[in-house]
Amino acid sequence: MNTNILLWNILKQFSAALLLIIFSHSSRGAELTEPPKLLILEVALGLAMGANPEISVAMREKEATEGARIQAGVRHNPYISSEIQDTRRDTRQITLQFNQEIELGNKRESRLALADILYTKATAELDALKATIHANTVNAFYEVLVAQERLALSKSSFEVANAAVNAATKRVNAGKSSPVEETKSNIAAFTAKIELNQANSQLNSSRKRLSALWGNPFPVFEQAYGDVENIPLVPSFENLLALLENAPAIGIANLEVSARGGSTKLARSQSTPNITISAGIVHNNELGLNQALIGLSVPIPLFDHNQGNVQEAVSLQYKAQDELIALKNQLATKLAGEHERLSVARLSAISLSEEILPGAQNAFEAANKGFNAGKFNFLDVLDAQRTLFQAKSQYIQVLLDAHQAIAEIESILGHVVTHPAQQEKE
Asked: What's the whole-model pTM score?
């Protein structure tokens, strides 16, 4: 877990300069590509935001609603009808008629208003998805960092276990220890090997989950680079709660209520029947005359006045309002839980790094030194080793819990946290 501060600062400066070049080219149409070696958070975010398949789908959905908005303002096409009465030339009567349906009840205005709301909602859904992808990328990136730390820890544990096997074997051969110690050391080494394989598998899975966010099932990067021990600062719960009203999901839910209200207004406007006006001429061969024709067609809403659709629209509007209230309560509860999770993880990380880990490290070193000197038996070393690596593993886990909690908070509220990898650039 020791970090080379100098190397980290140099890499951040180099990465910031590199990113400026990358993003400047990206703005001119060049694509951001996955690096073959080291991957930092900023590049991962750029890849995800630029190539995530879900974002592409949401953009198409927005484009579709834009087309629907155009269609909503289109008026009904006129149509022409003709009629021939009597096929005999001398007595034939030919009618040519122009017809135009006219919408009443503000139907067109209601459609346009609803289409505008749906377009705005699609835009909000796209923005919300981008915020979610941002949070998911941050979460996945730190999962890779933690998986790398776990792999390093497992390698160290495996090396220590092998060293213990050699030491135990020598002591048994020298007649200083019981063969039981050698057997137990071999079992410990075998267990450490299994844990090493599991850690390696978890790292591979984490790398794939991260690269999948930009549509690559086979990651190119070899290693994620970042400071997993640097937990970003998050505003107080009261300040976070104040931001909840502007959360992406709340905004979408509010627009859904508006859309349902627009649907209700449209359904009610459709209760008013449209009229069709007609104008044309009638040519009478027998009389040799052309006669003007004017007509008006008005449906009689005797049975169907769209009452069922109005009732459905009103019920769905009330449903959307209830869902909005439920969503606010749900997100407030989730926000409180994630903030508490973050607080506990941060305190646990401090306690582990400042108190537990140093004590466990000292105990292990003392036990190992005493074992080599013949003062302690192997069980003492094994117990101290197990305690140390359990503490390190717990430390890694609470760091992951902290970063995951922050990612969940960002997913709820949008991007509200500056991560260590972004501080240099911003």
From this structure: 0.80
